[in-house]
Structure formats: structure tokens, C-alpha cells
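WARN retry 2 of 3 for item q-0093 after timeout on previous attempt; input resubmitted unchanged.
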Amino acid sequence: MIKLRTLTLAAALSLASAAMAHADGAVTGAWKLSIGTNDAPCTLTLTADAVGTAGPAAPAGDCQYGLSVISHWKTVGPTLQLYAPSDELIAWLKPKGDAYEGSRISDGRKLALNR
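OK item q-0093 returned
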């Protein structure tokens, strides 16, 4: 029984470490943010705070369709959340390879972050 608990704990710690590794340095920097498949992407720069799992977001001037209001981000497990200055959740994105994909909360349109 102790071996099973030890294995379960080791697996959980391993998964948590992998999620933190993905969220840590991989999230910060410049990204190409796009809505749908036909819209031209704009640049969204994510900067980490002292903890490294959240921070400010700076959309470029060419971000349209409500994306210019993104002001900050945070990771929750492996997911990436984008927020407005009012702390309203704009999008919830899941990792997909070296990118993130998800939907905008307000209208369900697909969003993608790529390098």
C-alpha cells in the first residue's frame, strides 16, 4: 500500500513539475495572437512577475477585435488565461505543442498563440 502511495505521489509531482516547466519560461516573450483562421495575427508580449506564473501582457497596436484590451495573464496548471484590466477573463488557452489554443469567452471564437 505504501508503494502505491509513493508511486501516486511521484506521478503527481512529475506532472506538476512538467506543467510548471511549460508555464515558466515558455510563456513569456512575444507571441503571434490570432482569432480564427483568416485573421492576420498581432503581437502579444507576455512578461512574468516575480513568481513567474502571471504578469502583464502588452498587445501591439495592430491587435483588433477586442484583443487590444488584454492587460495581464496567468497560468493555471498547464492552461494560460488572458485577462482585461477589470480582471474579466478574455480567453482560456490550452497548450498544443509549442503553441496555445483556445476560445475567447465573450463569443467562443477560436484563439491561437504561436511563436
